[in-house]
Amino acid sequence: KWVNGEVVAYNPPPPPPPVVEVPSVTLWERLTEDEAEQVNAAMATQPFRTRQIFLTANTFRSDHELWSLLVQMATDLFGEVRASELLAAE
After folding, report:
1. Number of domains the chain contains
2. d(CA 41, CA 83)
3. Mean pLDDT of 35-61
């Protein structure tokens, strides 16, 4: 790489993490009946827009603005290990 008239080593930034994509039907199939009820109760506390996005989504993607909410909710409800199982890529 050329900087200020000199050749310097180029250290490219690390690539972004791969996007995780979980079909919504897969997430619901992974949940037990009890877990699904807990998710339903937690979602009821969210704003209307957020609920609609989750209800109408075909997939849940880690590059979407609401992924962090999904991870937080799953972690708070079920713990880190179960949340990672639920939100794992297929």
Report:
1. 1
2. 17
3. 97
